[in-house]
Design goal:
alpha/beta, two-stranded antiparallel ribbon, metal-binding, globular, hydroxymethylglutaryl-CoA lyase activity, TIM Barrel, 12 helices, about 300 residues
Length: about 300
């Protein structure tokens, strides 16, 4: 940890950016050809990223954008120093991830009963029970498992989420064998004070190196929330290049925080990411052009405008 001369907070000297654009981002965008996704991930692989979520093995009926994840993961040009992961909610998904040679898998739960019922049609307790066979298989095959936890700040159905409830579910995921839990502000209503309260509660029981943060930018608070998390020593941040993805509970609103914006923030704080900003932006421009959208990243747009000068 290093002390900044202009503030009283402690920041990590280095952070890990967990790139979720090829999964959490693209699953909320228009469907793309398989080769376009492969080209996108190959570009991301040249940017300095160490973790890329490359696919999702969920129901193709529910998430048709991810139906070709097996073919995508089999076709990408893998770099030796990068972990390519996939979302796997059940045994069938885990077996497909194995076939796709995923280096790591992720399971996803909710800190809110309402969201759990609406999203995966079961209670929180039932969802955790469903993960047990997946965890057993992962242990058998020596595959690391990451846990995603939704609605850690607010829920579109239940309102404000109790921090003790978030802690309870997060601890259960760690106890089950997840090496890390990513705390997700699913509807993007979090603010720095709420984030500080949540992280303080979690850190009293779970080491910081087992906590990641996943902020959506629905209300424009993702970067302030990340700054708050960084000031409390959080070292892993989920981000989506070009801000890919949306918020299904706020039509038209921004979704995932943009990787380019997070990298720029870290650069200005003197925090090492290991990423080349221009290469990240290049991947974002490529996929945005394929989707016929503008990058939802202020930094990306500024870089592109600078190039055109």
């Amino acid at each position: 940890m290093i002390k900044r001369p202009d503030c009283s907070s402690d920041f990590p000297d280095r952070v890990t950016l967990f790139e979720v654009g090829a999964r959490d981002g693209l699953q909320n965008e228009s469907s793309l050809p398989t080769q376009t996704k492969v080209d996108f991930i190959n570009l991301l692989s040249l940017s300095g990223l160490k973790h890329i979520e490359a696919g999702s093995f969920v129901s193709a009926k529910r998430v048709p954008q991810m139906a070709d994840s097996l073919n995508v993961m089999r076709a990408i040009e893998r770099q030796d120093n990068i972990t390519y992961s996939a979302l796997t909610p059940n045994i069938q998904g885990f077996e497909m991830a194995l076939s796709a040679q995923a280096d790591e898998v992720a399971i996803f739960g909710s800190a809110s009963e309402g969201f759990s019922q609406h999203n995966i049609n079961c209670s929180i307790a039932e969802s955790l029970k469903r993960f047990e066979p997946v965890m057993a298989l992962a242990q058998l095959h020596n595959i690391p498992v990451r846990g995603y936890l939704s609605c850690v700040i607010d829920c579109p159905y239940d309102g404000s989420t109790d921090t003790t409830q978030v802690l309870e579910v997060a601890r259960t995921l760690i106890d089950m064998g997840c090496y890390e839990v990513s705390l997700g502000d699913t509807i993007g209503t979090g603010t720095p004070l709420k984030v500080a309260k949540l992280i303080e509660t979690i850190q009293n029981h779970i080491p910081s190196n087992q906590i990641a943060v996943h902020f959506h930018n629905t209300w424009g608070q993702a970067l302030p929330n990340i700054y708050q998390a960084l000031s409390m020593g959080i070292r892993t941040i989920d981000a989506s290049v070009a801000g890919l993805g949306g918020c299904p509970y706020a039509p038209g609103a921004s979704g995932n925080v943009a990787t380019e914006d997070v990298v720029y923030l870290c650069q200005q704080l003197g925090i090492e990411t290991g990423l080349e900003l221009e290469k990240i932006a290049l991947a974002g421009w490529m996929i945005s052009d394929a989707l016929n959208i503008s990058p939802r990243s202020n930094v990306s747009q500024a870089l592109r405008a600078k190039r055109l000068q």
